[in-house]
């Protein structure tokens, strides 16, 4: 969608820092968004502003009152963005840390039974679920994903579900293959057999590529890392359902009931997420006639999806007289070449050249990508495919077709 509207594409790119140049390398194309998306200029400004404020929340002075109001507004913005009319939002150290906290609470606070998750998951959820299941003496049920598609299905969960399942974890989108899973379908399959299970979703990779609709998932926990959603490092965001919060949570004795946060939080973290929500609202106003904030956010998400699909199709199948990655001899595309659930990411290997060498050669030409190795982060996906590494090209909606052409031009020479 943005490809045909050069004025809008320029307006989008102008809102991000370092969109076409690196402060260390100089001019470059940024296709490393799964490792951390570009940062909104407003987020940089907001971070600077709040880093200088000495006051804390909870005091009786004008600055403290203002900070409390900013956090209150940010939580309302989060509820709007995630479409979560109930439950609680809070920030923590990182998406991984918050995943461990929510999963620990669910496993340790639920009745005796089992924990279920899938082999496609990032260790942020899988390691947490396996660790706390072991501590609690609860069996862990491992649902296998489909190596060809890089997905796990509702049927795969249903085949291994039992009424004794107390906690379930789901990965929304894989950071290795870019393939999304059917969260609502998997949740329904779980609840059909274990209706009272606590269901946690890792939305870290998905957040920047498609809309989030917690109200439609029937889940109890959802976590993102805002640095992958155009904000900054240093915090994560979690949503917890009221029933999850009702379990015994770690909190200060005699403090407010149901308070997940421990210690003084950075007001600037909350404020920068409001910047993200305002950006989505602006983008929605550019691509639709919607006036309601949630409708604008949904319109922005739909436009982002369409634009990224155009870019990934060009990456895979070519554009103009440039061959796509799938057309190059010796190339293997992870997750399948034609997978409709792909979200802004293509991982591939080339028979004639190690993945690390491809990344190095692309970087020398000013094209930033990343090598995923069969380590504790990606081995669950790569090892069953007989791969020790893959090249990951991850994009976002501010990437352009010209940048895709630059990568395909470079790959033509590298593959030759």
CATH class of the largest domain: Alpha Beta
Q: State the CATH superfamily name of the largest domain.
A: Type I PLP-dependent aspartate aminotransferase-like (Major domain)
Poorly predicted spans: none
Compute the number of helices.
13
The strand line-up of the biggest sheet is: 4-10-9-8-7-5-6
Instruction: Assign the CATH topology of the largest domain.
Output: Aspartate Aminotransferase, domain 2
Report the oligomer. Answer: single chain
Query: What is the makeup of the main sheet?
Result: 7 strands, mixed
Q: Gyration radius, to the nearest Å?
A: 22 Å
What number of domains? Answer: 2
The level of helicity is 40-55%
Task: Give the distance, in angstroms, between the N- and C-terminal Cα atoms.
Answer: 32 Å
GO molecular function, one term: cysteine desulfurase activity
Enzyme class: transferase
Protein name: Cysteine desulfurase
EC number: 2.8.1.7
Describe this structure in words.
40% of the residues lie in helices and 15% in strands. The chain is α/β, with parallel strands linked by helices. The chain folds into 2 domains: 2-39 and 295-415, Aspartate Aminotransferase, domain 1 (Alpha-Beta Complex), CATH 3.90.1150.10; 45-277, Aspartate Aminotransferase, domain 2 (3-Layer(aba) Sandwich), CATH 3.40.640. The strands form 4 sheets. The protein has a 7-stranded mixed sheet with strand order 4-10-9-8-7-5-6, with helices on both faces. A 4-stranded antiparallel sheet has the order 11-12-15-14, with helices on one face. Helix 2 packs antiparallel against helix 9 (267-287) and helix 6 (154-160) packs parallel to helix 7. The longest helix has 25 residues, at 293-317. The radius of gyration is 22 Å and the shape is globular. The protein starts with 5 loop residues before the first helix and ends with a helix. The relative contact order is 0.15.
């Amino acid at each position: 969608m943005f490809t045909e509207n050069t004025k809008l594409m320029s307006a989008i790119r102008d809102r991000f820092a370092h969109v076409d140049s690196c402060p260390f390398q100089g001019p470059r194309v940024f296709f490393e968004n799964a490792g951390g998306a570009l940062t909104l200029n407003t987020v940089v400004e907001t971070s600077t502003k709040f880093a200088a404020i000495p006051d804390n929340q909870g005091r009786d002075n004008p600055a403290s009152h203002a900070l409390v109001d900013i956090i209150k507004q940010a939580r309302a913005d989060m509820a709007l963005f995630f479409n979560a009319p109930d439950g609680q939002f809070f920030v923590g150290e990182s998406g991984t840390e918050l995943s461990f906290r929510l999963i620990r609470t669910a496993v340790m606070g639920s009745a005796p039974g089992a924990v279920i998750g899938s082999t496609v998951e990032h260790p942020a959820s899988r390691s947490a679920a396996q660790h706390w299941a072991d501590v609690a003496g609860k069996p862990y049920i491992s649902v296998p994903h489909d190596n060809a598609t890089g997905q796990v299905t509702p049927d795969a969960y249903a085949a291994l579900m039992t009424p004794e399942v107390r906690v379930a974890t789901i990965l929304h989108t894989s950071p290795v293959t870019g393939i999304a899973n059917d969260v609502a379908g998997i949740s329904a399959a779980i609840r059909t057999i274990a209706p009272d299970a606590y269901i946690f979703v890792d939305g870290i990779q998905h957040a920047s590529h498609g809309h989030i609709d917690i109200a439609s998932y029937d889940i109890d926990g959802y976590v993102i890392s805002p640095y992958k959603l155009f904000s900054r490092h240093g915090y994560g965001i979690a949503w917890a359902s009221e029933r999850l919060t009702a379990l015994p949570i770690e909190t200060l004795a005699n403090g407010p009931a149901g308070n997940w946060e421990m210690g003084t939080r950075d007001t600037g973290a909350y404020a920068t997420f409001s910047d993200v929500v305002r950006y989505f609202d602006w983008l929605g106003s550019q691509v639709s006639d919607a006036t309601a904030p949630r409708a604008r956010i949904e319109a922005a998400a739909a436009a982002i999806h369409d634009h990224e699909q155009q870019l990934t199709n060009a990456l895979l199948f070519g554009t103009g007289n440039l061959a796509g990655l799938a057309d190059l001899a010796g190339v293997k595309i992870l997750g399948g070449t034609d997978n409709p659930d792909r979200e802004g990411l293509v991982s591939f290997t080339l028979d004639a050249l190690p993945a690390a060498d491809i990344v190095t050669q692309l970087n020398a030409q000013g094209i930033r990508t990343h090598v995923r190795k069969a380590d504790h982060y990606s081995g669950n996906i790569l090892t069953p495919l007989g791969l020790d590494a893959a090249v990951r090209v991850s994009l976002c909606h501010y990437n352009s077709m010209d940048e895709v052409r630059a990568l395909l031009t470079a790959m033509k020479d590298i593959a030759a």
